[in-house]
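Q: A reviewer asked whether we had any structural model of the full assembly, not just the individual parts. We don't, so I'm hoping you can provide one. Inputs are below.
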Amino acid sequence: MIRVLIADDEGMIRSALAALLRLEGDIDVIAECSDGVQAVAEAERLLPDVCLLDLEMPGLDGVEVAEHLRRTVATRFVIVTRHARPGVLRRALAAGVSGFLPKSREAGEVAAVIRQVAAGGRYIDPEIAADALSDERCPLTNRELDVLRLGQHGETTAQIARSLNLAPGTVRNHISLVLTKLSVDTRQQAVIMARERGWI
Amino acid sequence: MSGTYSGGVTSETAHEPRSLPVRATSSGVRVTWWYTASAIMFFELVLVLTWAATVRAGGFEPLPAWAVLIGGLVWFGSTVPLILSYRHRTGEPTAVQWRIIVLPLLMAIGFGVFAFTVTGLWLLLVVPLAQTLQLLDWPRSVRLRMVLAVTALLVCLWIVDAHAVDDGALEISNGYFPVGFLSAGLPVMTVLSLWWWDVLIALDRARVSEARLAATQERLSVATDVHDLQGHHLQVIALQLELTERLLRADPDAALEQLKAARISVDEARQGTRDLATRFRSVPLRDELANARDLLRAAGIEAETVLGPDVDRAPASVFGPVIRETTTNVLRHSGGKHTTLRLNRSGELWRYEITNDADAAAPTIAGREGTGLDGLARRAEEVGGTLEIVRGEGNFTVVVTVPVQ
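A: Here is a predicted structure for the entire assembly that you could use as a starting point for your response.
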């Protein structure tokens, strides 16, 4: 039996998927969680073979759950998502996720992926891979991304400069370069754009 | 993993900045900026030199002339940071940054007073401060009024100075016309240059907003299409479900058929929505290959791309799907430790090659991946190309060639 933990904040989808997976002879759904924090706690308690995680959850998202658990629990991760935002597949692979598929796949296919992943394989849905390959490339340098990331909650230029050990003038230069490259007028717009495209 | 060079072939490092359309013109804008800034600096320098020369020619000792020259150069130096910081002004009202402007203002006043004491010329008292003031970040209407007022004042001072020259109070007999003209004209010329820069930036922004507006309109039309499509499918599904409900007791088999039909409708709706959403998505092959490399690296596979110099002209309609399919295959097999993607032109052929040191016995070569590659082979044949699969000792290579059009 493959012991599976399911985490999804949408109750209907979670319980339907759990019921459908239980119909498969070799899969046992041992936990149903409604958010990322609960998923981390339950996974540490129950040690499932595979964690089936929704990407969009309150608290911790699916990839963050995988990042938390990969060091503490010997389990494998499958991420399901309604809409894979740019950059998220790269993040997920870097977090050690073994399976990634859209929510629209039927339960039989999800079960097949769970089996493949439990056996040590990796499954990336072709649609999601195609989307990830046609992502817009990020025009910003790593340093410029640092500046945006550290300033994304409205930190002042001076605070960003302190965190990066840079002069405030240098930070201002980075910011104005970012604004030029993204053709936006304010730092907030740049942060929103970078977040939407999965750059930070 | 960083770039290596061999022949005319480059391999790229991660995060090369490119691809937003704005990058194409940004270098032109940069050149224009340096042209504008250096014109202003050149004018200031010429003015300082002219002052020094005039003072020397006006019968002063060498010392005051040197003093005016050196003081002038210091003042010039203090204006440079102001000119350079003008480049990134946003045009929006911002808090005055006293730390940046206090020193240049003090320098301008100091040099003016000093030059006036040494030479007795009123223009030299006022021009440095007048010029430094033009360089600050003023709202446009304020700047216009200020430069008009300042120029009027400078013309008056020029007349006063010229009378003083005529009266013999100063021993400057010739050459006062050029220095007066230059001095009174400097603020106007500076403001015109900065205005020219502002116009250029406004045009550049307008161009970008226009492109964005077009994209937004496209998105709105897609949204309408999605709405129509979803509305249609939801209606069909509702009918099928209603029918199922009626049939359930009387004819369970027919009800089951309807349920299956409803599921197929759902799938069609989903696929249709996806097709709409991806209708306009395309990135240059270079970016696609870079994304592939980043994904493979994120999955713990050593990956590099080796690109020929003119890959941007390779047919994306053929190679795009090939890159997607083969990269997905490598990602799914997970056996490999090293992957190389090559795209270049050799003679009359475009050649794409992906080599992966996965086990040739990797379990999932057959089945779905096999059919994926078959589809790619057909597509390559349609444009007169070939697809070749090479299974070597411990590696797996796919080569696709397409004739250059």
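A: Points you may want to mention in the reply: The beta strands of chain A are 2-7, 27-33, 50-54, 76-81, 99-102, 123-124. The longest helix of chain A spans residues 168-182.
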